[in-house]
Amino acid sequence: MNEEQRRDGEQAVNPSDKKSAKDYSQYFETVYTPPSLKDAKKRGKEEVAYHHDFKIDERFKEMGNGRSFYIRTYGCQMNAHDTEVMAGIFMALGYNAVETPEEADVILLNTCAIRENAENKVFGEIGFLKHLKRDNPNLLLGVCGCMSQEESVVNKILKSYPHVDMIFGTHNIHRLPEILNEAYLSKEMVVEVWSKEGDVIENLPKVRKGNIKAWVNIMYGCDKFCTYCIVPYTRGKERSRRPEEIIQEVRQLAAQGYQEVMLLGQNVNAYGKDFSDMEYRLGDLMDEIRQIGIPRVRFTTSHPRDFDDHLIEVLAKGGNLMDHIHLPVQSGSTDVLKIMARKYTREQFLELVRKIKTAMPDVALTTDIIVGYPNETEEQFEETMSLYREVGFEMAYTYIYSPREGTPAAKMNDNVPMDVKKDRLQRLNALVNELSAESMKRYKGQIVDVLIEGESKKNPDVLAGYTSKNKLVNVKAPKSAIGKIIPVKIIETKSWSMDGEAVETQTMAGVN
Ligand code: 5AD
Ligand code: SF4
């Protein structure tokens, strides 16, 4: 069968059903809805609608029979969790999961738009996958995730990558069955990207990666509009899931034996701000989750601006709430923070850190930093370096500023040459390394609890896991320790990890 016939519907919903595409026209809902950054910027006053009625339409139930899927994920944990949802939908449609794109009948690239190099990687991959389409004309290739929310990306794909079959956005994931159906039937590239703020859809199927740690969305979107960031455009307005839905999901995960949940949102400290019927914020949610019998609870990502006293008070209760907070500061200069529209000063950030450390003296703080912001001076950069040391961050993700089309910062003139930006990144990374190594050294000879996740990537004879402060430990322990939290004696420390041995305790004897 050639490409044309396939697109005409011979391989459509039900492969044995030989209707023409015209006969399927009743099923066509949207074939071409391109994104609009202008619409994505709008924030409506309408209440968020909650949908509990997701189910796979009867007519799509056979769609995946004899077919397989592969999803490649780029970017953050939110994206990785979206992949779990899409995998759940594929499985519900009867598709098989495969390990390589070569084996797949549908390939999805779940993309990240946060920096230009993330986008370049995806374009490289789309180009590379063309040869698979030549070998297998029945293959469907789709692009989803944050990049598909950008007009410039969709236009570039339409113009230069016609072998892509479908593009759909972050608000359209639940429409995957309809989008696939249209892609099987349509001659054109299927583009369905809603730019309007999405609703909250519950009960989507999920296939979780692993059975030790689980991601749980608590909210979607971001209303902060930091001047450099594309996320408020690609992920829409802030929408919180109802607490009862989240608590039920965490309870289920605990019952299934998961050891850790990571609560996810682009700005989790804004959790609950959008509830019009109650005053219920992240601190309240954490206080309830604290009482669920799941050993470890974490959350990401925080915005310092909304980090309130009640949350600090609850986190200080400890228990299953981990003593690690990822708190992106972005810059140590009040002037740069102002241009970034972060809405706090260096002093306010330091005051927040002081409050957190007073309540939780042993807390580990980590952060995100952008260097080389438009017109950042050497003095302003030095302020970032001094703040880093003053706070005593134990780890940081560091980035050179990358202009994103459509954001206010992309229109700013920039007098900082790239070699200066690179030099600043190097100097900052040296400091990050130094403080990370120092934070590890403190553990030498101590016994720490480690959640063992599996074999070490570098050495399969050793297991690897994380401490409550999220520090990587390579552990000599029996394989039966995988999935358990065990006491480990730290023998050696490095810049980014530690080496240790399982402590022979009664529990370990049981484990053996
Ligand atoms: N350029 C560089 N880094 C960025 N980040 C977000 N947008 C940009 C950008 N345009 C960084 C921030 C954020 C992290 C997820 O990515 O530090 O916290
Ligand atoms: Fe990338 Fe941000 Fe989108 Fe995550 S939310 S996929 S980090 S752009």
UniProtKB/TrEMBL annotation:
The domain of life is: Bacteria
Q: What is its main location?
A: cytoplasm
Q: Which PANTHER family match?
A: CDK5 REGULATORY SUBUNIT-ASSOCIATED PROTEIN 1, MITOCHONDRIAL TRNA METHYLTHIOTRANSFERASE CDK5RAP1
The record's comment on cofactor binding reads: Binds 2 [4Fe-4S] clusters. One cluster is coordinated with 3 cysteines and an exchangeable S-adenosyl-L-methionine.
Q: Where is the composition biased (Basic and acidic residues)?
A: 1-22
The entry marks the following residues as binding [4Fe-4S] cluster 1, namely C76, C112, C146
NCBIfam families cross-referenced by the UniProt entry:
miaB-methiolase, MiaB/RimO family radical SAM methylthiotransferase
The EC number(s) this enzyme carries: 2.8.4.3
**Region (Disordered), start-end ranges:** 1-25
Q: Which cofactors are reported in the record for this sequence?
A: [4Fe-4S] cluster
> Which parts of the sequence belong to the MTTase N-terminal domain?
67-185
Per its UniProt record, what InterPro entries does this chain match? Elp3/MiaA/NifB-like_rSAM (IPR006638), Methylthiotransferase (IPR005839), Methylthiotransferase_CS (IPR020612), Methylthiotransferase_N (IPR013848), Methylthiotransferase_N_sf (IPR038135), MiaB_methiolase (IPR006463), rSAM (IPR007197), rSAM_horseshoe (IPR023404)
Which Pfam families does the entry mention? Answer: Radical_SAM, TRAM, UPF0004
- Record key words, sorted: 4Fe-4S, Cytoplasm, Iron, Iron-sulfur, Metal-binding, S-adenosyl-L-methionine, Transferase, tRNA processing
Q: Where in the cell is it found?
A: Cytoplasm
Indicate the family of this protein.
Belongs to the methylthiotransferase family. MiaB subfamily.
Q: Which residues bind [4Fe-4S] cluster 2?
A: C222, C226, C229
HAMAP family assigned: tRNA_metthiotr_MiaB (MF_01864)
Top enzyme class, one word, equals transferase
State what protein this is by name: tRNA-2-methylthio-N(6)-dimethylallyladenosine synthase
One GO cellular component from the entry? cytosol
Q: Please report the organism this UniProt entry assigns to the protein.
A: Domibacillus epiphyticus
Give the Radical SAM core domain ranges.
208-438
UniProt GO molecular function: 4 iron, 4 sulfur cluster binding; metal ion binding; tRNA-2-methylthio-N(6)-dimethylallyladenosine(37) synthase activity
Q: Which residues form the TRAM domain?
A: 441-504
Subunit details: Monomer.
Reaction(s) this enzyme catalyzes, per UniProt: N(6)-dimethylallyladenosine(37) in tRNA + (sulfur carrier)-SH + AH2 + 2 S-adenosyl-L-methionine = 2-methylsulfanyl-N(6)-dimethylallyladenosine(37) in tRNA + (sulfur carrier)-H + 5'-deoxyadenosine + L-methionine + A + S-adenosyl-L-homocysteine + 2 H(+)
